[in-house]
Amino acid sequence: MQIINEDKINEIRNSADIVNIISDYVPLKMQGKNYFGICPFHDDHSPSMSVSKERQMFKCFVCNKGGNVFTFVKDYENISFIEAVQKVADKVGIPLDIAKPKTEISKFKLEYEIMDYATSIFQNNLNSKAGSAAKAYLEKRKINESIIKEFRIGYSLNEKDYLFNVLNKKHYNINKSDELGLITKDGLGGYDKFQNRIMIPITNLDGHVVGFTGRIFNGENSAKYINTKETIIYKKGNIIFNYFNAKKYIKEENSAILVEGNMDAIRMYSSGIRNVLALMGTAITKEQIEILKKLRVPIILMLDNDSAGELATLNIGKELVKDNIDCKVVRLNGAKDPDEYIIKFGVDAFKDTIKHSQNYFDYKMNYLKENRDLNNTEELVNYIKAVLDMIKDSDNLTKDITLKKLSDEYHIDYELLKKEVTFSEEKKVNKIVLSPVRNKDKYKNCVYNILYYMMNDAKYLKIFNKKLGYLKNEDERNLVTEIEYYISKYGKINLADFISYAESYDKISGLVHNIIESVNIDELDDKIFEDSINALDYILKKENINVLKAKINKSTDINEQIADINKQIAISKKMMEVEKEV
């Protein structure tokens, strides 16, 4: 992580009014003493994000996202914490000189250097006489010189060990080159993993080349595509092709088009449609969903026009919607994929299909109608049940709109349909109440309340140390230690500043954000803190009783019990003392 002096971070945060900064991104309206706006971190339809000028914090009471001004800018723009500090500093006119530690620069320096060098070799090959056929193929596919350069497309020679020898001469470690999937070692030395293929670099979210897709181009009798194996820098499930190039265009267009193959993405990009990403397959991972979620734009699924593509559209769309991502669908009639569609019907027709993308739920409703005779009562009932099952986990607005569509189209009583679907109550903007749930959850609720209060005001740390002074989990104790250190250093504490402090410490930053997103407290109330302390004290003592009971019941052998009778009596007395306290 880049380094900024803590005092400088506090200076920037204290100079930045969170209301003014967030207003640059989201319109805010004052209601009472706080400001409210549409939350950009979920599919919000009514203002659910509160921004406190007094506390310099924001909080959404639906998706629970919250934090200080840096947190908002970081998550809204999908950038690092340090980049967010820099942006806020620029907005308030504070010059910032960021130092970068050597360890961060050099973490994967050698790996990136080797991959970058291999990319340059492939580029040179494409521009050589040996690469003329590959280049002619790209030109035939309407991939011009500027796109070739922007994507750094190259060519692996039709030789067994060309790259192997070049890397050797450059004195790059052969074991490392093998680990990166560029060559394969054998008893005679090694040979190139990619031979006689168009080479498409795969970059990570920061633009570093981490792998390749090698594509045939002369109709060779071999696999159409070969991808780099997973390596220390290339995890396919963490990569979305063209993300680094496309992210600025995605913001401009306020949408991202998701396709299957990287050649489709390149073809669309070369046709002026630059807000395009590719999964390089028909599956999506949780990590990729998180990447898409942070873009906070509608995702337009444009997968291949075959049965696999249709199934993937349904499955991926379901996962995106589940994560509150606005999902739309385009199915390309008359062509198997975007590349073929553009060639057959032209760019203008292709752009028109994008403009007429369907909402995912509308698409799936039409899909569910296929091969059903809706004049048949039984099939109509099955169709309606399928639609109701589809929307059961959706937000209330989606449920309401869908039910009204069904009611209007099939003349079914709206209230009858509504009875079949559960409408969840909206989350209220109020204080957390300790709910009667399992002990494990009670413990977490109490601890999160206690830590939240201590991060807001030093007086709560004193009360905690006097009345309790102990938490059983190491990460919770680490956070208490850092709170104590922060208060001893600055003489006071507030949550807005402590969030910035915690960003530099991996051992506590995750817990701090979990607490902020879990605790819905608008104003600090001493009674809630005291109730949390008392409830936690009770939970810990009850757990102590259970441990003592387990010790008493541990031995079933009568001789062992008699031999250890004094110990058993001592444990029983201790248990009685604890039970009296409870």
Structural description of this entry:
By secondary structure, the protein is an alpha+beta fold. The protein folds into 5 domains: 6-92, DNA Primase, Chain A (Alpha-Beta Complex), CATH 3.90.580; 108-234, Alpha-Beta Complex (DNA primase DNAg catalytic core, N-terminal domain); 238-364, Dna Topoisomerase Vi A Subunit, Chain: A, domain 2 (3-Layer(aba) Sandwich); 371-419, no CATH class; 439-562. It is built from 28 helices and 16 strands. The strands form 4 sheets. It has a 5-stranded antiparallel β-sheet. A 5-stranded mixed β-sheet has the order 13-12-14-15-16, with helices on both faces. The protein has a 4-stranded antiparallel β-sheet with strand order 6-9-10-11, with helices on one face. Helix 1 (6-15) crosses helix 4. It is globular, with a radius of gyration of 30 Å. Mean pLDDT is 86; it is low at 425-440.
N- to C-terminal distance = 47 Å
- Can you summarize the main beta sheet? 5 strands, antiparallel
* CATH class identity of the largest domain: Alpha Beta
Beta-strand proportion = 5-15%
Number of domains: 5
Number of strands: 16
**CA-atom Rg in angstroms:** 30 Å
Say which CATH homologous superfamily of the largest domain is assigned: DNA primase, catalytic core, N-terminal domain
Structural class: alpha+beta
The best one-word shape is globular
Give the name of the CATH architecture of the largest domain. Alpha-Beta Complex
**CATH fold-level assignment of the largest domain:** DNA primase DNAg catalytic core, N-terminal domain
